[in-house]
Write a structure and sequence with these properties.
- The complex is a heterodimer.
- Chain A is built from twelve helices and 15 strands.
- Chain A is of the alpha/beta class.
- Chain A folds into two domains: 25-144 and 282-355, Rossmann fold (3-Layer(aba) Sandwich), CATH 3.40.50; 146-272, Response regulator (Rossmann fold, 3-Layer(aba) Sandwich), CATH 3.40.50.2300.
- In chain A, helix 3 packs parallel to helix 4 (105-118), helix 8 runs parallel beside helix 9 (255-261) and helix 11 crosses helix 12.
- Chain B is mainly α.
- Chain B has one domain (1-292): ABC transporter involved in vitamin B12 uptake, BtuC (Orthogonal Bundle).
- Chain B contains twelve helices and four strands; from the N terminus they run αααααβββααααβααα.
- In chain B, strand 2 (143-146) and strand 3 (149-152) form a beta hairpin.
- The longest helix of chain B is centred in the N-terminal third of the chain and has 31 residues, at 5-35.
- The chains are: A alpha/beta, B mainly alpha.
- Chain A binds chain B through residues 171, 196-200, 202-205, 207-209, 211-212, 214-215, 228, 231-232, 235-236, 238-241, 256, 259-262, and chain B through 4, 6, 9-10, 13-14, 16-17, 20, 130-131, 133, 136, 141-143, 145, 150, 152, 225-227, 229, 231-232, 234-235, 266-267, 270-271, 274-276, 278-279.
Amino acid sequence: MRKNAILGAVLGAMLVTGTAVQAADREIVIGYQAPLSGDRSQYGEMFRNAAQIKLEEFNASGKLTGAKVAITFEDSKDDPKEARNIAHKFLDNSKIVGVIGDFSSTVSMAAGEIYAAEKMPQLSQTASHPDFTKLSPWQFRNITTQAFEGPYNADWIIAAGMKTAAVIYIQNDWGISALDGFVSGFKAKGGKITATEAFNPGNRDFRSILTKVARQKPDVIYLAMFYEEGAAFAQQREQLGIKIPLYGTSSLYSPKLIELGRESVEGLHLATTFTPDNPDPAVQTFVKEYAARFKSEPGMFAAQAYDAVGIMLDAVAKAGPSVTRESLRDALAATTGYPGVTGATSFDPVTREPAKALAKMMVKDGRFQVVTGP
Amino acid sequence: MVFDVFFLQQVINGLSIGCVYALMAIGFTLIFGVLNVVNFAHGEVYTIGAFVGLMVITAMAPPLLAVVPLVLAVGAVSGVGLERIAFRPFRRFTDEASQKSRAMREATLLSSLAVSIVTREIMMHIFGGDMQGIPSGYLLQQPVAIGPIMVASGSLVIFATSAVMLGALQFLLYRTQTGLGIRAVSNNQLGARYVGINTDRTIVTTFAVGSMLGATAGILVGLYDGAISPHMGFAPGVKAFVAMVMGGLSSIPGAVACALLLGVSESIATEFLSSGWKDLITYSLLVITLVFFPQGLFGHGRERA
């Protein structure tokens, strides 16, 4: 709490001096709502860190003349009630033309209902619930959903010459969306699904599923699960002497997968938005800057926030110094090929869903490596 | 559906998972048999066994056979501690009315649940909720080919351990003085006290033995599974409980047989149904057993004091 107060004071001081020096310039403010205290505060902390880096880069870049952009942070505590209060507060501040956040889908949607009614553009870095962008034309997100990732992986597998697949998925809303995304994409490309097998969260024994699936000899097994189960699955596959290659969702992308799965996860393929190992110079600049300032390697969440802020600020620059909430919304909707650290991002002007070029990875020699080609 | 090699593999898979349930059910049933109440903290003893085993392995890298006695000791200590905290306070009244009171006895259901929750939260706090990996040299995961069938080395170890535990327990119960005491207390606690058996000591011994078995089960399953977490005791605990009820509550061989039956049924059911339904099989078997064999498949229909 005290740290937050100090940070707030520092930020406030920066704002004051900023306006004093550039008195002639218009001040444009972006509201950022995120959990900065409570259980989820580590995420809000990462978002704020990444946002500060991006904001300074932007103000130094000279992309926008005649105005200065600032970000004001509010702590939503990952609580829908707080989020609604913040939404009203942001709406009452006429300097605020756009909002970034919140963290979880539930909280983002609670605030989103108010932004939708009062016409404020809202961009969440992480809200992945399908209904979030369906709230109104004012909601955007910078995270891909399984409806995008599934067909992307399906294309990748088909391009690698594999035609039949078995899907193993976790029995929850997310798992079912991953299953649907992949199966529809795979069938559309002429692939054949030999089996779809659900397992209950917490299950640790996949031997019977593996034995059942292996009988039909699919070309590939597609895993829609998290790293704990992914590691157990890969180990048991190895024990049973099954050689069918594994592809999986980006949720498996964690150093823990290799730590737990060891040699058994060698050769597992997955596509992800952000990896600190990506040789792309934009990614390397961000990783170095973040590590230098905050003494830790940025993860996926920091990268999502960094790009969300970047997309928002570029839209502000496009709309010009006389930007309004309406013109910012239109500029956001027109985002195409934003060169971020989580892949080049475009928004579909109708659905406002992001499309990204994902980084294709495989586990090789005990670590995730970027794969080039199919 | 054909009876091919894959089907045989499913049966073997089922026996492997059944052995995991059995390993846990043995200690569980032993403690239930003596006190006639469920010890909800048995799953945490199992988890403690796994974590202590892992800590010893990472700190000193001893040979696996040296880890086992240590885990046994830790199990015994946690069993005695558990009895002291959650069970003994409810036996402090020795008059006949309190001894016969179901309410006094069943209060331990909640006190053991409380100990289980507190222990799990403490472990979460210390170790975090994430899965912890086991150093690769200790993993019991080498594939062993028996003809066209693949078995993990851990399955064989767990099978052998279950068999040894079962045999040793039967010996303890039916061939030793201590076992006679345990059976007497199990049969009628008040009667045992009247004929001069030190019931408190017998109960403590039972907890020590049962928890030793539980802790050993924990580390073995951890090595077989490749990862452990503070929540690892819950799912097999539920299955062990079902096996115990199906087996007739206090019959240890019955619980083991039912654990194997559950494992094989779940595994074969995966051939016909989505594996998301496998818990349905377990609970259906439980309901069917309770409807048609209210004493359990191996119960003796003894009088419940």
